[in-house]
Amino acid sequence: MISDGVEDEEKWLAAGIAGLQQNAFYMHRALDSNNLRDALKYSAQMLSELRTSRLSPHKYYELYMRAFDELRKLEMFFKEETRRGCSIIDLYELVQHAGNILPRLYLLCTVGSVYIKSKEAPAKDVLKDLVEMCRGIQHPVRGLFLRSYLAQVSRDKLPDIGSEYEGDADTVMDAVEFVLQNFTEMNKLWVRMQHQGPAREKEKREKERNELRDLVGKNLHVLGQVEGIDLDLYKDTVLPRVLEQVVNCKDEIAQFYLMDCIIQVFPDEYHLQTLDVLLSACPQLQPSVDIKTVLSQLMERLSNYAASSAEVLPEFLQVEAFSKLSNAIGKVIEAQVDMPTIGVVTLYSSLLTFTLHVHPDRLDYADQVLGACVKKLSGKGKIVDSKATKQIVALLSAPLEKYNDIVTALKLSNYPRVLEYLDNETNKVMATVIIQSVMKNKTCISTDDKVEALFELVKGLIKDLDGTLDDEIDEDDFKEEQNSVARLIQMLYNDDPEEMFKIIGIVRKHILTGGPKRLPFTVPALVFSCLKLVRQLQGQEENPFGDETSTTPKKIFQLLNQTIEALLIVPAPELSLRLYLQCAEAANDCDLEPVAYEFFTQAYILYEEEISDSKAQVTAIHLIIGTLQRMHVFGIENRDTLTHKATGYSAKLLKKPDQCRAVYACSHLFWVDDQENMKDGERVLLCLKRALRIANAAQQMANAARGSTGSVTLFVEILNKYLYFFEKGNPQITVSTIQGLLELITTEMQSDSTSPDPSADAFLASTMRYIQFQKQKGGAVGEKYEAIKA
Amino acid sequence: MNYLIGAFKPSCNISITFSDGKSRKQVPIKKENGHTVMVPLFQSQENIAGKISIEPIQGKKVDHNGVKVELLGQIEMYFDRGNFYDFTSLVRELDVPGDIYEKKSYPFEFSTVEMPYETYNGANVRLRYVLKVTISRGYAGSIVEYQDFVVRNYSPLPSINNSIKMEVGIEDCLHIEFEYNKSKYHLKDVIIGKIYFLLVRIKLKNMDLEIRRRESTGSGANTHVETETLAKFELMDGAPVRGESIPIRLFLSPYELTPTYRNINNKFSVKYYLNLVLVDEEDRRYFKQQEITIYRLQEETS
Fold this sequence. Notes:
The complex is a heterodimer of chains A (790) and B (302). Chain A is built from 38 helices and no strands. Chain A has 790 residues and is an all-alpha fold. The termini of chain A are far apart. Chain B has 302 residues and is mainly β. Chain B has 2 domains: 150 residues, Immunoglobulin-like; 132 residues, Immunoglobulin-like. Chain B is 2% helix and 59% strand. In chain B, the strands form 5 sheets. In chain B, strands 2, 3, 6, 7, 10, 11 and 12 form a 7-stranded mixed sheet that branches. In chain B, strands 15, 17, 18, 20, 21 and 22 form a 6-stranded mixed sheet that branches. In chain B, a hairpin with a 3-residue loop joins strand 13 and strand 14. Classes of the chains: A mainly alpha (790), B mainly beta (302). At the A-B interface, helix 5 and helix 7 of A face strand 18 and strand 19 of B.
């Protein structure tokens, strides 16, 4: 059925074109022979093809365009005819003898165009006559095309200022009257289409209407180009008349399109000066009109206008553009009860963009916008429409982009209140946006209240919000988010330790609510933030007055201790251990022996109780040894306890090579280069010997288990340690001990059961080269090495 | 026709010329045989003068019982064919009985002739003016020659010429108000007006304005009425809605109209009507007919 309809339409169009061309042919012949009577007859017949009701607007347009071209030729003929002495007034009458109205009016408009050009009558009279006579066509499509033709032929003949048709009798007012009237009539026809025909074809009709809309809009374009329309004329006549038509037509499609047209065709300056008029029309539009787009367009244009030049900004202030827009939006939302959330948000988003552009200094305006938005959103609960939430993100991102400074945004008291209407997912997105803004602009947030506010904004990332299910969260996304939080923590900084301590307190309060999944990401950031403060303080004198309230490293360490403890619930023993060690080192640098000892204790406890994985143990023990080696704050007793423990742990590692390595690493605990009181050569040797024993045992175990001994790598490593201490002047390490070890290695390597290991060989070779190198250096070192035979 | 007469041994040629024939306006009329000829135009109270020439055929003489010229105003009803009714009949004797041997001219004049009715060529009736020259002969029958002429009478501008304004409708269906700017129009006039739609509940398709001529002939039981639509002028295309007003501008000049004739010699009347016709989508017609008076206004050029 439908395809038949389309085919039929093609057929009708073809027939129409054929009829048109045939009559055009006879018309041309009449034109060539200057036969006016025949010319009129055939042109009328040609135009009769436009009387069809069978074509859709789209196809009708094709037919119309062909007729239009022919009419141009006819117009030329009429012009020549008047030059030959035919009275234009007679011609004007003659074409009106046609019996059919549609051809008659096309001809009348054509002659009318020549009539105006002849200036035998005031342009306004001819125009008025034409626009009145066109009332005879009440069929929407035919009427729209006819009037569009009228608009087309008259547009260069309007009595505009500076036009040749302007004169005593013809003023720009007449031009405006004419266009307005044609516009009004066309709009009426266009709107009427909606109500004609069966209801089931509504969709098709709306499509057709949209195809025709530019015919109506053309009138507004013409008005927009009339030079003579100054602000007063626009304000007093043009705009009120156009709006009257727009409002009264009560048609959704027309209202939307025409409002948009008005905004697009007239100058920004006019919009600004007539804002209240334009805006007062908005709440009067049909509730279904997409007013948000209209207003957004308007605000966008005005924003761009404001951005175009600083000179225009006073105008905005003078007309109180912001408050007018703000009021209008409020009214529109009230009037359109069914406006979806997205509409509301889009409107406020546009308004916010506007105010940010126009009044960047008026933060209170921005806050007002957000406040109004919150008010409208209240009672609607969380927003579920994904488009609406996107708009909210846009709304909230706008101030960040504008000011490039979260600190400014933090002054907007309504900012977090808007956030409350977002679902959890979007809340997170928004939080990420905020953090990214901070990062991008390297904004330093330096007061506790701002930090507090900021955390309020990003709380979506800080803790679980109600109703989020864990399994919804993508692991990678989560990591990314938490990493960004960690980065954010680093951006919170104040030079004043007191302030900084407050900030830390607040951060801690917030991040501790994060739950086991977040803590491993956030706690380290906080810990290092604290340690930074500690480092800052450590150079300073203790407060001589002993002021209780002042920030001291001690206080911070207490806080740190509690903070790291929070990780217990995760649990994350390896991480905690590292953090304890970091803290211990910081305490060491602050000369706080008990504190440092406490941290070590915590670390040891963790090692003993929580770290059971052997690989983790190896890592941990090396960390412990490394840290402990650098500690200088401990007295002998404490140090002994700790080193003793460390050595003990080393020897108890599961794998022999690990044991061996940990033990020889322990040797460093007894020999700290730059501290004379920590050079216990004997215990160093003990450690190394113990390591040797373990290495031997490892070889034997390997031999027993696999039939071949492992490589000599461990021995070479121990040899290196020997050489190190030898060089450092440990009296216990003698040439003979080294010599003994070298021999041992050689023997091992020659043993049949040793499996070849090129890397071990290379290691040994380079060690040997080092010895040779040292020998050749000469001097004290050279002499020392000279004794080693290798 | 002269040729046909000639076949019956015509013995002479008769020609009728008007004294101001060269300057007088000529208008076309349609003869019974369908040919259009140009004839002089007169109006009432004018002198009709001229010359009648009789020229015998070479070598023949015309002997007669007298020569006369008559001015006749005739009304001819087609359904009563051949039956002329002369409402005007004037005679001038031109010659006493005798013989005509060579071409002979007779001047004639009818002065200030009363010709109250206009020449009219209708559907069922014809009103004509004719000059009839008769050469009476006793035995061979008279020789007769006719010359038609046209009479048109002009009216002054009417002193009262009200507009026609009327509200009509079908209850709860269609309600319109229309207005024609005058009730009396001259032949080259323009009808200006408008139609205002007060209520539209039917789907209209278009609206035409028709000019209808109603010619009634005879009287009493023998009255014949013939109505012709002379003009069909489309005023509106498409379906209007309430509140629309549609302009009317109809030039009368292209149509072949006559003035309104009321009771011409108790024989016939010709009246004109404007018929406003609205057609709906089912091709139902709604119409309202209004009589208008048409008159002939003196043209400045003639």
